[in-house]
Please model this.
Amino acid sequence: MLLSDGHHAYAHCAAKTGVTHAQCWAHTRRGFFEAQAAEPEAAAEALALIGELYRIEDDIRQAGLSGERKKDHRLAHAKPVVERFFARIDERFAAQGLLPSNPLTRALAYARDRRFGLEVFLADPDVPIDTNHLERALRVIPMGRRNWMFCWTELGARHVGILQSLIVTCRLHDINPYGYLVDVLQRVGQHPADRVHELTPRCWKALFAANPLRSPLHRQAP
Model:
């Protein structure tokens, strides 16, 4: 499963790997928010429908629903809203009253082109409605922009990005990033290259977290 914004690179990656591609409702909402000045009535209607989806998600959190109960709640309450949202998009396009450069046209096209990905969350209770939690976790990167000046090279910056992504993924899986990196950095040189995916945080947690390799510092008395 891949959850992302609407950038075409993610769609290409999903098609190449065969994973299901879920897309972010917050990024879809942004287009309609920016279209309010040009088409206030139509934009407000779309924003209201998306807002209803978020209210349903809040109800799910408040009720502590998960698994099949969460899925059933989404299908019963969110799916009709999603269908109404895309029906209105089709009606707007059928009216043929907007120029391609109009902000609302761009917002409508963005949503229509990504309908499949935007509907994935309805059938899979483990898929969030948006990528906001991921963006919050990665916010340390733009916040530390001045620090990244000292990466010196593009390769150094690339490695910093990989390391930050691993740390954030560890936190999403309730893994201590320090313990994970200590283990993997010792293990990677002897691990079969065709099974390197086993060292990604999700797989590592299932395979190695119960008995991780330790640093020599770990054995020193406090």
Summary: The first strand starts at residue 2 and ends at 4.
